[in-house]
């Protein structure tokens, strides 16, 4: 009987410690999602041609929107600043497609979008719903290209240091690898379930 009680106490202690460790991690993930603005470009298909066109559209959108995508537009400001420019960006993207023999249309929107945990070179973005500029090419059924626009961590010519934008706790999250940090998976499972419920 005593052994069962001891086992139960140990189990509760372990679970309690785990919950206490995941809570601040999850809070840091929440803060990151709130502040980060992402750019998401989705190809028409996974064909080599369409994947190549996706990169051309990416380059043209970033070039045409140079003043917008300069790493200063925050997630909170994105819709107000970028939405009036979407027709101009759409025209530029479709023009580059036409120049390369493609008649697909392009749709550009600013809104909330769910992302799984994603790694990019030396930083990680936790799973969850982010504000994103989404560029859909044609049927948008192909592999995507994504980037963090604010803070400007992977834009062309960006030289921002992540620690200039994130708190120390947030830096511990973005600089961790999902391969060695199991809490990423727990956050992803929770955020995925929450997103599915919200979509119903």
Structural overview:
- The protein contains six helices and six strands; from the N terminus they run αβαααβββββαα.
- The chain has 200 residues and is of the alpha+beta class.
- It has one domain.
- Helix 2 crosses helix 4.
Question: Which helices and strands, and how do they pair?
Answer:
Blueprint: H1 2-35, E1 37-42, H2 48-64, H3 78-82, H4 86-99, E2 106-115, E3 118-120, E4 123-125, E5 128-137, E6 144-150, H5 168-174, H6 183-199
Parallel strand pairs: 1-5
Antiparallel strand pairs: 1-6, 2-5, 3-4
Helix pairs in contact: 2-4
Short description:
This protein has 200 residues and is an alpha+beta fold.
Order of helices and strands: HEHHHEEEEEHH
Helix content: 40-55%
Q: Into which percentage range does the β-strand content fall?
A: 15-25%
Structural class: alpha+beta
User: What is the oligomer described by this structure?
Assistant: single chain
Shape designation: globular
Major β-sheet, in short? 4 strands, mixed
Q: In order across it, which strands form the biggest sheet?
A: 2-5-1-6
Helix segment count?
6
- Rg, Å, rounded: 20 Å
The pLDDT mean sits at: 86
In the residues, how many domains can be counted? 1
| Total beta strands | 6
Which segments are poorly predicted (pLDDT under 50) over 5 or more consecutive residues?
6-18
Descriptors:
200 residues; 6 helices; single chain; alpha+beta; globular
């Amino acid at each position: 009987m005593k052994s069962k009680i001891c086992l139960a106490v140990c189990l509760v202690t372990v679970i309690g410690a785990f919950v206490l460790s995941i809570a601040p991690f999850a809070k840091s993930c929440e803060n990151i999602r709130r502040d980060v603005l992402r750019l998401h470009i989705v190809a028409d298909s996974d064909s080599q041609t369409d994947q190549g066109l996706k990169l051309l559209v990416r380059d043209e959108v970033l070039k045409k929107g140079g003043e917008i995508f300069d790493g200063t537009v925050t997630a909170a400001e994105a819709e107000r600043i970028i939405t009036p420019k979407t027709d101009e960006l759409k025209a530029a993207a479709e023009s580059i497609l036409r120049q390369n023999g493609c008649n697909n249309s392009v749709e550009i929107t600013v809104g909330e979008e769910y992302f799984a945990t994603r790694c990019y070179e030396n930083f990680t973005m936790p799973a969850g719903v982010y504000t994103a500029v989404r560029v859909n090419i044609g049927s948008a059924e192909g592999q995507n290209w994504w980037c963090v626009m604010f803070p400007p961590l992977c834009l062309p010519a960006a030289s921002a240091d992540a620690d200039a934008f994130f708190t120390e706790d947030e830096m511990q999250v973005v600089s961790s690898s999902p391969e060695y940090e199991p809490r990423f998976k727990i956050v992803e499972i929770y955020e995925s379930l929450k997103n599915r419920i919200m979509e119903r």
